Request: fold
Amino acid sequence: MPERAIGVFDSGVGGLTVFKELMRLLPEEDLVYLGDTARVPYGTKSADTVRRYSLEAASFLVSQGIKALVVACNTASSVALPTLQEHFDIPVIGVIEPGARRAVELTRCGMIGVIGTEGTVKSGAYTRAIQAVAPELQIASAACPLFVPLAEEGWANHEVARLTAREYLAPLVAQGIDALVLGCTHYPLLKSTLTGVLGREVLLVDSAEETANCVVQKLESGDMLRSAPGGARRFFVTDVPTRFERVGGAFLGASLENVTQVAID
Amino acid sequence: MPERAIGVFDSGVGGLTVFKELMRLLPEEDLVYLGDTARVPYGTKSADTVRRYSLEAASFLVSQGIKALVVACNTASSVALPTLQEHFDIPVIGVIEPGARRAVELTRCGMIGVIGTEGTVKSGAYTRAIQAVAPELQIASAACPLFVPLAEEGWANHEVARLTAREYLAPLVAQGIDALVLGCTHYPLLKSTLTGVLGREVLLVDSAEETANCVVQKLESGDMLRSAPGGARRFFVTDVPTRFERVGGAFLGASLENVTQVAID
Reply:
């Protein structure tokens, strides 16, 4: 069991930011990624549809023989995590709880901002996760639907992104947040734009980093880390790989190779 | 046969701009719409995937008993029209040819601009359609991936849209276009922003209008217009209707009712 790979899935390329952190923290682990690029994005779709797609994606990775599943997609984590945890008998780790816990540690004034897709924000998953740990804290959230296409267009540091961020974040700034959860795996690419708009006093919580830390702890405590050296990386997508390979490089911070198309529906 | 409905399909809400023109020109016809909202967008997906999804969407509408099928999606028209025309024995009308013909009529300098999704531009469908009519004309095209999310966000006339349009259109302006094909059914919402950037000398071709005109001609010439008064409108979507109803109103220019969710995959 410890010699098996860790599975990571996302609706598209965004989860590669989590994959990148896992590569950094666990270089000897085998990693296998699935991007459901034929049906991306999940963020504007209903909870029922996202649950159905997530089950199909997770089933594919489980069929590859994995020891743990990372749901590297905030929308899927928000609405499908309990379903996936019930359905599979390996550890299933989402991105919400790690980010929420970190935000609780960081805030001083008690007002936390959360940004994400329409689906994530509407689910209220971050609010529940934060208030489960610290019920006295307040949360101001905003859906930022244009951030994903901006990041995928390579415009994360473009004037258009800055203007868009100013508009989306204005209500959160007005409410006096001092920590902001990047509740979408695409958003780490926008970090410098967000800091430019918010100032350095507002601390950003990168859920990709926090989730990777959480995976390490879980594997360590379960005695599930590899003993023999590994480090293989495999990538699967549900549409042809061309766009994934081109756009994904910026998310992975490395060039993408060995990408295979599979049917999961 | 003439008493049957006209079927219209799109990946999401964009095709409602075509539906709206059909309602205006053919108020007595029954119309049935399908938006494949569980798998939207098609514009960033591969030709093979778009063909597969288009066949499923068209089969659903044909099963509803329609006399003609309008492919109100530029991406699907670009890559799936011949497949659909082979597969079904009713008239199948796409949005590419009507827009291309109108652009040929409008240009004076012989340099036509075409904007659309990544899938539409990459397919070269407009270039082929324009040069089939007028091989001497030149075409400058640009993919504008951010226009769809901007229109769906309700930001079509926002400063962010203006800045984005300036960036996308700069190479077309530099090449001296005097007509611009709006090669995506979302783009009619951006008309005033585009005119603001391009000036009034550059004429915009609204493929929604041109396609509706083409449908009227086709039904007239085939003696397929209704004789008895009708005018029923039905809407189907593949995800829950909430977002479609909310966002779609701006595209239809009226509030959306009677929207039913169906499974087509």
Q: What stands out?
A: The domain at 97-207 of chain B is CATH 3.40.50.1860 (Rossmann fold).
